[in-house]
Write a structure and sequence with these properties.
The structure is a homodimer of 401-residue chains. Helices cover 39% and strands 13% of the residues of chain A. The first copy, chain A, is built from 13 helices and 14 strands. In chain A, the strands form four sheets. In chain A, strands 2-10-9-8-7-3-4 form a seven-stranded mixed sheet, sandwiched between helices. In chain A, strands 11-14-13 form a three-stranded antiparallel sheet. The longest helix of chain A has 27 residues. Chains A and B meet through helix 1, helix 2, helix 3, helix 5 and helix 6 of A and helix 1, helix 2, helix 3, helix 5 and helix 6 of B.
Chain lengths: 401, 401
């Protein structure tokens, strides 16, 4: 079979690492899948979608069905965000919204600001859009804005163009679980104005909160249309409907829609979500999921204390993930491969970095497995770790990505 | 509101022209929507999707669910195409497959070969991917391969790189309804090898056949993985599920998947389609739709003979569209606007050209309206035409796109 003249970006893209976790013989602590027993019964909403056949089986409007756009705007209202239908574009999950933002703003080589580590799929989407990166560290208050400002100023002094986009997950950051502080939310917006970049606020976990009070979303502080909010039903309802949204200034939303090549998301699945949002049932489902995730987090934290106390982490106050520092000199790629042999799938923390990865972190999810499996999984990880560490075969950095 | 630093491609994209046709007060002869009374009852398949909650509400595999990929491969088998699961990527409609092919193959400025006229949405997708165009004329046997060969040779002599992609709809071409002859299918493949480009065979209408025998798809003649087949359920089942597919060499399919930013199409709607294909019910639904479209075509053709005999067209032997030449000097853009005032939405033929548009054609669809509405619509178009022609206000070319 001959090779073809692929575009450079197609050679750049790293095939998603998420394949091993589809193996049914694996205990999955990798991807943020839904907990199967918490998947909702959607019979009533689906029946409504079937009844509205002329809407749900027909081509739908490019921007999304109006009932859903209105329901999403109302949903955002509860977070203090002023939005109406003209701000909302329905997309096939938040990832798809991120891709559209890249298509509308990024030329090859344009710089994107993100935290190191960050959402691993965002990295591959940015790479597929031929972005360059400005990685900023995090502390317990999130992205370190002083470092951001310094890097922006240094780029400017060096005559480099300002980055086009900043990407962050301010609430229960993926993978670290950190929440961006209120002053930093404000400061990032100020820097966006000063340096003329857009802020992408990815917000899948905000309502999956175990502790603490919510801070105002960056989007709620935005008076100039600088922020593109991304939302999804994957973590608050169920992943399989593939319904997400973009909340942006109308002219930005329309440009994203114009480049959305599918001609409009499925009105069938949109109607299901619209019914769930309008009827208020979504909030009850999210509350149920949150309760489950809270319990799962507690189980995972306790399992580490019991079986693997040498591992380091800060327990997240919401969301789906635990960001774990491996003790000693063990490389995370080697460890992830070793853990697979023990029947556990985990993501090496390397995948969460756009550049200069730290090599001794894991991203674990407590979402998919049962409490008993989480307990067993962490115990097995500890065994795998000690097995690898004692084998002495792997030193830091030996196994590059 | 400030303007932002958009990428050039976002400024290039033309907002879809398909908005007027969502106005409920319009008689729609524009978009190829489903005929509402022909929309199927999917209760049984949806019930199965609800039963399989652990599959359908969870994240699905990036390439699509295996049952659907296998069912699509079997479906293509009936067309003489050898494919298996590893060739099939499930996408959100054929448009989405086209976008992914562009992302995998096109760098800005790369040339795409297409017919003039061609599928209007393909034009905007190629434009959003910053393609340049090599437009080739059609006769009653489809794309004129001698003209194609001549242009390829001239580009080569001029030191220009060969085009990367060729896009065509060999069966019941949109908008002309023409079917590409068997020798030309073969010749296009030979030229693809000689000049090292990929062939995108868009095939939404093949089974919506009123007359004549099917020719072998280009993909069935392809032994080197040069052809990317695009399929969709929109025209053979219902548009609202947004399920389409790519059939390509595995390494091409995998690259398209790696750049498919949504992480996998909805397993809920995939399961519905898989059940329809596996159970054989899809064929019955397609047969019903074909019968309706056949009748609608006959009604439209007869209505033109009765009300608007000066208009020129070749009655299509399948598909959803009639490509109509306006008599005299009337400009199609001006006419489309004028027809709207009479309550009829039509697409100016200009939208179907990537370059050098002919200015006196309309693309009409007979799919959405009832036979009575089609009759009334064509009669009204004739009135609108005579009104415009007699007003003498519009001469050819006066109203540019």
């Amino acid at each position: 079979m001959s090779e073809f003249r692929y575009a450079a970006r197609a050679a750049n893209v790293i095939a998603p690492a998420a394949f091993a976790h589809h193996r049914s013989d694996m205990l999955k602590l990798s991807a943020g899948n839904a907990y199967p027993p918490a998947l909702p019964d959607l019979s009533a909403e689906v029946a409504e979608a079937l009844r509205r056949r002329d809407e749900t089986l027909q081509y739908g409007p490019l921007y999304g069905i109006d009932d859903l756009r209105d329901a999403i705007a109302a949903y955002l209202h509860d977070d203090g965000i002023v939005a109406d239908r003209e701000n909302i574009l329905v997309v096939n999950g938040a990832k798809h919204g991120l891709e559209l933002a890249c298509r509308v703003f990024l030329e090859p080589g344009d710089a994107v600001i993100l935290t190191g580590p960050t959402y691993l799929t965002a990295v591959s989407i940015f790479q597929a859009n031929e972005a360059s990166f400005v990685s900023i560290g995090q502390d317990e208050d999130g992205m370190i804005v002083e470092e951001l400002e310094e890097k922006l100023r240094a780029r400017s002094l060096a005559g480099l163009p300002a980055p086009k986009l900043l990407f962050d997950t301010p609430d229960f950051h993926n993978p670290t679980g950190i929440t961006l502080s209120a002053p930093r939310r404000q400061r990032i917006l100020e820097l966006a104005h000063e340096y003329d970049f857009m802020v992408i606020e990815d917000d899948p976990y905000r309502r999956v909160r175990f502790e603490g009070a919510a801070l105002a979303p960056v989007k709620s502080l935005d008076t100039a249309g600088r922020v593109i909010g991304l939302g999804t039903t994957s973590k608050i309802l169920a992943p399989g409907l593939k319904i997400g949204w973009v909340n942006a200034a109308p002219q930005v939303m329309r440009r994203m829609a114009a480049i959305k090549a599918d001609g409009g998301s499925s009105p069938f699945t949109q109607r299901i979500v619209a019914e769930l949002m309008r009827g208020g049932r979504l909030a009850a489902i999210t509350a149920g999921i949150t309760k489950v995730m809270h319990r799962h987090r507690d189980v995972m934290v306790a399992a580490f204390a019991r079986h693997f106390p040498e591992a380091g982490f800060v327990a997240p106050k919401g969301g789906y993930f635990l960001w774990v520092e491996l003790p000693g000199d063990v490389d995370s790629d080697a460890f992830a491969r070793h853990a697979e042999k023990f029947g556990i799938s985990v993501f090496s923390g390397r995948l969460s970095y756009a550049e200069s990865p730290r090599t001794n972190f894991l991203r674990l999810s407590y979402s998919f497995c049962s409490p008993a499996e989480i307990e067993q999984g962490v115990a097995t990880l500890a065994r795998a770790f000690h097995d690898l560490a004692e084998s002495g075969k792997v030193a830091a950095g030996q196994h590059g990505a």
